[in-house]
Amino acid sequence: MTKHPGDGPAALSVPAPPRSSPRGRRALLRAALGGTAALGAGAVLAPAAAVAAARPVGPRPTTPAAALRELARGNGRWRSKHQAHPHESAADRVAALSGQHPFALVLGCVDSRVPPELVFDQGLGDLMTVRSAGQVLDEAVLGSIAYGVLELGIPLVMVLGHQSCGAVAAAVAAEESGERPPAHIDYIAERIRPVIDRGHTGPARVDTTITANVRHVRGLLAAEPDLRARVAAGRLAIVGARYELGSQRVHRVARGGVSARPAAGTGR
Ligand SMILES: [Zn+2]
């Protein structure tokens, strides 16, 4: 299996940010609407065995850095099998009636082994998830992301690829065989084909293409004018990452290569 330099301890962590960042107008609006009333309810959810690993009681993150830290903490709970299973209680289900205030949007693959809510140990209302095979973009995916960022004010978009991605493998196989995949799978393969790694063969080629595809999709999103403006204003970060099935670790994919250490900041 390919060794990923970023697949080390704290691969998703970021430098400690200010304890309390200024809350945006949208966050204040959320509070005014009562949507934050139940945000501390996660404290009652952790079973005794997981109390030590449970998330701190508090509101959901409202900044890119804080959102990334929470994803890292959640992935740590998942890896260590000390999930807190936050925001699943009866009270949380009732609170969901008043609206949604997810703190991160994960664009991931449809692969059944990589459900974002599980691998980041998040619950009801925590994540907006958009999934397509190979996390490829189309208008529906872009519109869904735009809704989360522009309408709900989500401060973090993570493009999440994963080890052993069948969609990427299919694209590579189609390229090598010259045969078109059946039906609409061809559309997926065509989106991935431009980033197929020409420098490797076999499983290594699939693996490096998985990373290249994450970087490519992240770059496409970052070039979207409305999203770019939010990034420039410091209200949004768009990051690339990979989930390794073996270690269950999520680690960042830097724009210019697989990061050996987390980027200083949130990848803007
Ligand atoms: Zn996949």
From TrEMBL:
Pfam families in UniProt: Pro_CA (PF00484)
SUPFAM superfamilies (UniProt xref): beta-carbonic anhydrase, cab
Superkingdom assignment: Bacteria
InterPro entries listed in its UniProt record: Carbonic_anhydrase, Carbonic_anhydrase_sf, TAT_signal
Residue segments, region Disordered: 1-23
Cited Gene3D superfamilies: Carbonic anhydrase
Record-linked SMART domains: Pro_CA
Role noted for this protein: Catalyzes the reversible hydration of carbon dioxide to form bicarbonate.
Family membership: Belongs to the beta-class carbonic anhydrase family.
Protein name: Carbonic anhydrase
Lineage: Bacteria, Bacillati, Actinomycetota, Actinomycetes, Kitasatosporales
